[in-house]
Amino acid sequence: MRHLTALVRNLSTYRALLAIPNAQQRVYALLQQLGQKMPGGLLVIQNLPKQQEVAIMINTSRETVSRSMKSLMERGIIERDYQRLIVRKPEELQLASQLGKYDENAH
């Protein structure tokens, strides 16, 4: 029963992601959900899926995923480390997932 409950919750979460109208917001929200909170307040995504896999998960193009992640990297919000993705500024990622395009002038 616990396994089934976890499966239903996980599927509900992904379904909610697909309801987000903006593709960039879906990328940001998925990154938030995949992250595991570490000591120090950082989020870490172990074994980051390939960009094509992320695109399939949220029903968008690989190019959109690439542009969205590049934008976050340029602003120092995320950092790639081998097969991990480190979210250096989780609060800004959360804000970006709520607002759509990340606006660097908002801070």
Give structural notes.
The structure is a single chain. The chain contains five helices and four strands. The relative contact order is 0.17. The chain has a single domain (2-101), classed as Arc Repressor Mutant, subunit A. It has a four-stranded antiparallel β-sheet with strand order 1-2-4-3. By secondary structure, it is an alpha+beta fold. The N and C termini lie far apart (45 Å). Helix 2 (23-34) crosses helix 4 (62-74), helix 2 (23-34) runs antiparallel to helix 5 (90-99) and helix 3 packs across helix 4 (62-74).
Number of helices: 5
Could you tell me the mean pLDDT?
86
Give the uncertain stretches in residue-range form. 103-107
Helix content: 55-70%
- CATH top level class name: Mainly Alpha
End-to-end separation in angstroms reads 45 Å
- Within CATH, the superfamily carries the name Winged helix-like DNA-binding domain superfamily/Winged helix DNA-binding domain
How many E strands?
4
Strand order of the largest sheet: 1-2-4-3
Q: Return the structural class.
A: alpha+beta
Shape category = globular
Characteristic terms for this protein:
alpha+beta; 4 strands; 55% helix; Arc Repressor Mutant, subunit A; disordered C terminus; 107 residues
